[in-house]
Design goal:
about 180 residues; alpha/beta; Trna Endonuclease, Chain: A, domain 1; 5-stranded mixed beta sheet; two-stranded antiparallel sheet; about 40% helix
Length: about 180
């Protein structure tokens, strides 16, 4: 499926449709989507439905060469963020976080990163995210995606997660402890 087809397909889904798709992603039952693409497109759509400005997955070029594949960009709550989404069976290792850190180094300093994992994070990945210098990368887990879908909002949770990172240095603050 081409990128524009995936975008058109996900944009047909409302909150209920996204919840249904999320259940299928968790069950690893998305045969009509390329591996990982349903999750990759689900995340920007959640933000879009909550009123955020979204840039869908794209490839960034430099001197005519593709140098990055970006899973999306979100502008919400005064924050500008690059998205990295991984739908893996096993916990996410440090590589996607390190990749996003490198992508952020080419962006304005106020740009943050968000990593969404459907399967959690290894301890080394959590440690890396907690001690990054110069780049803020917020980690989101499956329970937080479910929570956002259930409550039909995510932008306020991004602001809360960012505030917790500013106040306590915790990029993996769990927003599900908060109540609407």
């Amino acid at each position: 499926m081409k990128d524009h087809e995936a975008e058109a397909r996900i944009r047909e889904l409302d909150w209920g449709g996204l919840r249904d798709l999320w259940m299928k992603i968790q069950d690893r039952d998305t045969p009509d989507w390329d591996q990982g693409k349903a999750f990759e497109y689900l995340i920007p759509r959640i933000f879009e439905l909550d009123g955020a400005v979204v840039r869908w997955p794209y490839r960034a070029t430099l001197d005519g060469q593709v140098v990055e594949q970006i899973d999306g960009v979100v502008v919400a709550g005064g924050l500008h963020a690059l998205i990295e989404s991984k739908d893996l069976k096993d916990e996410m290792t440090i590589e996607p976080i390190a990749k996003l850190r490198n992508q952020l180094m080419r962006r304005p300093i106020a740009t943050i990163g968000m990593v969404f994992s459907s399967s959690g994070y290894t301890e080394p990945a959590l440690t890396l995210a907690r001690y990054l210098s110069g780049q803020t990368i917020l980690l989101w887990g499956a329970a937080e995606v479910s929570f956002a879908l259930e409550n039909e909002k995510i932008a306020p949770y991004l602001e809360l997660k960012y505030l917790a990172c500013v106040m306590y240095g915790t990029p993996d603050f769990d927003i599900t402890f908060q109540r609407n």
